[in-house]
Amino acid sequence: MTSPHSDTVALLRERLIRMEQCGNVVSNFIPTGQSSIDHYLTGGLERGAVHEFYGAASNRMTLAKPSRFVASALANIAGPVLWVGEEYLDVSVAGIRDTALNPGRLLCVTAAKNALQGLCEEILHEAGIAALIIDMRAPPSPAESNRLYRAAKSSGVTVFLLLPQSALGSPLIGTSSTTQWHIGTHSPASTHPASGGVRSLLNDQRWNVELLSYQGQPGRSWAIDPSLFGVTGSATINNEKSPKNRSRWHPSRWIEAASA
């Protein structure tokens, strides 16, 4: 039986062939660029796993923080990044524009309504993808979460789920995700400075990055300065910073990609 997503997947496959491929994976983790967070995670975000990120509120604008956090982490590795959602992606609002992530590595796809989960599961069977970002309005069901986890683990593709705070259950919704995060505006109470010490805590522009769930370990919060995201690995830095490889962020690029 032909998949309802076969045409979309075929087009993605064609474009992926023309993009920079992942190459050999040199680490099982993706550094976040924040040293104390990476130390707590024993290296960073686990590859071939699913990570959930919740914004600070229920409106689209607040997803800029988790979007920027994820994009900054992905600047530390090589390979194509697919961003899939049910709505057109505005990269300026999404918080990616000011990160070190090379826009030439990013391919945006708009899924038909109620087709997001199925399309993403099929995409995870494609070769040459470094990461899949899924922009969701509601969290996956336990069964859907388990399928995403198994597909990510089998393929080695790291999956990031971006969700509004309104989708965050209390207690936490049953999930197969390796980590769950909440990112919002910094409040000095009960946080640990990831960089900058006391000075970080006094800056109104700091974010509060809260690790809600991590393999059964207790949660923790950090106050971070988003302007200090570090890019690790000289090979990645050379590729991202090279004027020859660095594409310009231009709105028309994303309109074309999102309508593919």
Give the structure's gist in a few sentences.
The chain is α/β, with parallel strands linked by helices. The chain has helices spanning 6-18, 35-40, 64-74, 91-94, 116-123, 142-155, 197-202, 234-241, 251-258; strands at 29-30, 45-46, 50-54, 81-85, 106-110, 131-135, 158-163, 179-185, 192-193, 207-214, 220-224. Strand 6, helix 6 (142-155) and strand 7 form a beta-alpha-beta unit.
Question: How does this model look, in words?
Answer:
With 260 residues, the protein is an alpha/beta fold. It has a single domain, classed as Rossmann fold, CATH 3.40.50.300. Helix content is 30%, strand content 20%. It has a nine-stranded mixed beta sheet with strand order 5-4-6-7-3-8-10-11-9, with helices on both faces. It is globular and about 50 Å long. Residues 196-204 and 233-260 have low confidence and may be disordered.
SSE succession: HEHEEHEHEHEHEEEHEEHH
- What CATH architecture label applies? 3-Layer(aba) Sandwich
Structural class, judged by helices and strands? alpha/beta
Radius of gyration: 17 Å
Q: How much beta, percentage-wise? A: 15-25%
CATH top-level class: Alpha Beta
| CATH fold label | Rossmann fold
Would you identify the CATH H-level superfamily? Answer: P-loop containing nucleotide triphosphate hydrolases
Overall geometry comes to: globular
N- to C-terminal distance:
23 Å
Can you give the helix content as a percent range? Answer: 25-40%
Sheet bearing the most strands, described? 9 strands, mixed
The spatial strand order of the largest sheet comes to 5-4-6-7-3-8-10-11-9
Low-confidence stretches: 196-204, 233-260
> Total number of β-strand segments?
11
Number of domains: 1
How confident overall, as mean pLDDT? 76
